[in-house]
Amino acid sequence: MLRALHIADFLALHTPIIDVRSPGEFARGHIPGATSQPLFTDEERAVVGTLYKQVGRDAAVLEGLRIVGPKMATIVEQARALAPDGKIRVHCWRGGERSGSVAWLLDKAGFAEVSTLKRGYKGFRTHVQAELCNPLELRVLGGYTGTGKTETLKHLRSLGQQVIDLEALAHHKGSSFGAIGEGPQPSTEHFENLLWHAVQGIDTTKPLWLEDESMLIGRVKIPDAFFAHMRAALLYFAEMPMEERAARLVVDYGKYPKEELAEAVVRIGKRLGPQHCKAALQALEVGDLYTVAIITLTYYDKTYGHGTSKRDPARVLRLPASANDLRGLAQRVIQHNAQHHHA
């Protein structure tokens, strides 16, 4: 059975998805959970596209068939391995030739149910951007660098709260040091897809906890509407002494190569000022990571304070925090939130 579905019906199915766009298109962004099974390589796609523009559709289709012909058996085998029960979803960029031809092929090969996506990945992107504008009951966990916000989020999750870790989705911890120990970042486009995916299944009547972020997490940008909701949400600001935060950063970053830490210090060198930058690099050289942490925190605290000052002070709740009791902090945050909600 062959059928072309609108986005909501397509996403409601639980069958495997194959994305038949080129590897480059898939790498830029894709439906989370989809498998890349390109009809053309990036180079082949360019050739067919050029023919389409310069000669016309017929010539492009013919060249496409010439390229795909030898791959047909492999396409069917790969799809079968992915969907042994013969039920599969297929999409391309606009829901046109590529997904149509693969769907036809799988149908001819005896697949029981082949669903294509009307308007393709392009339609999915429109859907994602619209969905990320929907308001959620956001609660934001804030605090200066080194407060252990990510770990506190984990405690909130283990205490039954709804949590999305934006830094985990972005593969970046937010600061100049944020890329250290992380994999390559997704594109902003794919980050939006991942965020959309994380929001699916969230109970919109209950709080959703996030860490306070600036609009850019490394090179990845939080969508405007979502960021505006974060800025308007209640901010629970954990106040932890600088010494405790510095000690925590030493533990978190001490295991990474000195060269990477030095590069991160140099990146914020201008903002630290030449003498602070030099002092931090000298301390790093002799292995005095605590001093490095104190110097960089002085800069980060100023920057973070500036970001917090843009919020409505009535929406900022300050809570004392201790580095060795982040679970207790999570429990107090939940308690405060419940009181605030009933007040």
Gap between N and C termini:
56 Å
Write down the Rg.
25 Å
Proportion of residues in helical segments: 40-55%
- Using the alpha-carbon principal axes, give the shape: elongated
Number of helices: 17
Query: Average pLDDT value?
Result: 93
Largest sheet strand order: 1-5-4-2-3
CATH classification, class level of the largest domain: Alpha Beta
Q: Let me know the number of strands.
A: 12
pLDDT below 50 for ≥5 consecutive residues: which ranges?
none
Order of helices and strands: EHEHEHHHEHEHEHEHHEEEHEHHHHHEH
Q: What would the CATH topology of the largest domain be?
A: Rossmann fold
**Which class of secondary structure composition applies to the elements?**
alpha/beta
* Strand residues, percent: 5-15%
Question: What assembly state would you assign to the polypeptide chains in this entry?
Answer: single chain
CATH architecture group name of the largest domain: 3-Layer(aba) Sandwich
How would you characterize the largest beta sheet? 5 strands, parallel
Number of domains: 2
> By CATH's scheme, which homologous superfamily of the largest domain applies?
P-loop containing nucleotide triphosphate hydrolases
